[in-house]
Amino acid sequence: MADDIFTEVDEEIRAERIRALARRYLAVAGAVVAVVCIGAGGWQYSVSRAHKADAAVSAAYFTAMQDATRAPDNAGTDGTLTARQKTGLQELAALDGRARPPLRILARMERAALLAGSGSLPAALALWDGVAQEHATDPVIASLASLLWVQHQIDSGDPATLRSRLAVLDGVGQPWRAQAIEAEAMLDLRTGKDADARARLERLTMDMSVTDGVRNRAEAMLQTMGADAGG
Questions:
Q1: What's the confidence (pLDDT) of residue 48?
Q2: CA-CA distance, 198 to 201, in Å (whole number)?
Q3: Burial class (CB within 10 angstroms; exposed 0-12, middle 13-18, buried 19+) of 205
Q4: Residue 62, exposed/middle/buried by CB under 10 A (0-12, 13-18, 19+)?
Q5: What Å distances lie between residue 137 and 16, 18, 64, 130, 152, CA to CA?
Q6: pLDDT band per the 50, 70, 90 thresholds, residue 41
Q7: Is the pLDDT assigned to residue 27 strictly greater than 70?
Q8: What's the rounded Cα separation, in Å, for the pair 190 and 187?
Q9: Rounded Cα distance, 128 and 148, in Å
Q10: Spatial contact of 65 and 110, defined as CB atoms under 8 Å apart
């Protein structure tokens, strides 16, 4: 059940990440246009060169993503990376020294996702933790990286450490508040605090501000807990 939950969460998170980065790129693009319009001479030339360099890095990123995400039709289901995905992973890693934020951060997030999916969890955790701690990371993405760091060791990590991370993420106004509360409920279940887990899940089912996916999963978990209690 946990695997199904994390599959749905990853899909939601990917959509949210794309929207967040789109907003950020639009703001950056607007700033670049303003500088080009105002600047002149050597400054304008420097801006033009930087823009071309960024365009080249962006093209390299999307090429890497095509390799990383397009598995062949006959790919196995054992979690190992295909040859093309390994190439994509190497290409994403090569961007680390070339790309500027936020593209460098996004490349690290994609690398972490690939590594986690292929069983290289320690390497993925290190990348997520690094993104969460880096000053240049957008706060929304930093919170996302911290959430993923928690989610992927919810069954094995130190409960006190995980709770300390989630306590930062579950506050009012936090971008991943609902997912953090959901993770706290799963941690409650793991540590035998069924009543606390039930209370958190009930809060999610009654909160109209959370996504349908989170609410539906909370309802399903409550039904499972009820069935287990009845059995």
A1: 46
A2: 5
A3: middle
A4: exposed
A5: 16, 15, 21, 10, 20
A6: very low
A7: no
A8: 5
A9: 7
A10: yes
